[in-house]
Write a structure and sequence with these properties.
Elements (H helix, E strand, L loop, with lengths): L3 E3 L3 H11 L5 H19 L5 E7 L4 E7 L5 E6 L2 H11 L4 E9 L6 E7 L9 E4 L2 E2 L3 H12 L5 E8 L1 H10 L4 E7 L2 E2 L5 E2 L5 H6 L3
Helix pairs in contact: 1-2, 2-3
The structure holds uracil.
The site of uracil has 9 residues, from helix 6.
């Protein structure tokens, strides 16, 4: 069964609490989502290999360590994943980004793909899927299936909030994909929104309704 890491650091919980609050303005919400993503990524990249280097400080010679290997790839699930992408790219400015466009059918709640653009070199790099709300898990499962079809092997999922149902769906479909979260909520309502959640992440980011 895949590993589920809930990052319960006080900073993450503080920022998530303001994201949940319904009167938090879109500009503030965007900042908070970026910051939480950077903190989730901090945990998710803990095992990244480093290489030791020698360098000169203004004072003396020194030894340091830099990340070894290729920069990761971030895949944003449109549209709410865009809010996480800017936070992730700030941590890894040389990273490449892909986009998968999915919308939920209003009646079936099943994901329908309308766009998929993945960067070159995706097979050889660590891939982080950015999906803020792991609700039914349908979108994440669909996106991961698309990544696997493109030959990606090393995938981690970063979400702000998950429902127990979403986690179970993902673990059943892809037991090899680790999940990094800020919180696991109670469940889903009849419209498949996470309760208590934070509402529609795309609307909260972009001020739509
Ligand atoms: N997507 C959202 O943006 N919010 C939810 O609660 C569920 C899916």
């Amino acid at each position: 069964m895949s590993r589920v890491v809930t990052v319960d650091h006080p900073l993450v919980q503080h920022k998530l609490t303001y994201c949940r609050q319904k009167d938090t303005e879109p500009w503030k919400f965007r900042d908070l989502v970026e910051e939480i993503t950077a903190l989730l990524l901090y945990e998710a990249t803990r095992e990244m290999p480093v290489v030791n280097i020698e360098l000169e400080t203004p004072v003396s010679r020194a030894r340091g360590a830099v990340i070894d290997g290729m920069e990761p790839i971030f895949i944003a699930v449109l549209r709410a994943g865009l809010g996480m992408l800017s936070g992730a790219m700030r941590m890894f400015p040389g990273a490449r980004a892909g986009h998968i466009g999915l919308y939920r059918d209003h009646d079936t709640f099943l994901p329908v793909e309308y766009y998929c653009k993945l960067p070159e070199g995706i097979r050889e790099r660590d891939c982080y899927l950015l999906e803020p709300m792991l609700a039914t898990g349908g979108s994440a499962v669909h996106a991961i299936a698309a990544l696997k079809k493109a030959g990606v092997n090393r995938i981690k999922l970063l979400s702000l909030i998950a429902s127990p149902e979403g986690i179970m769906a993902l673990q059943q479909a892809f037991p090899d994909v680790e999940i990094y979260l800020a919180a696991i909520d109670e469940g889903l309502n009849e419209k498949a929104y996470i309760v208590p959640g934070l509402g529609d992440a795309g609307d909260r980011l972009f001020g739509t309704n």
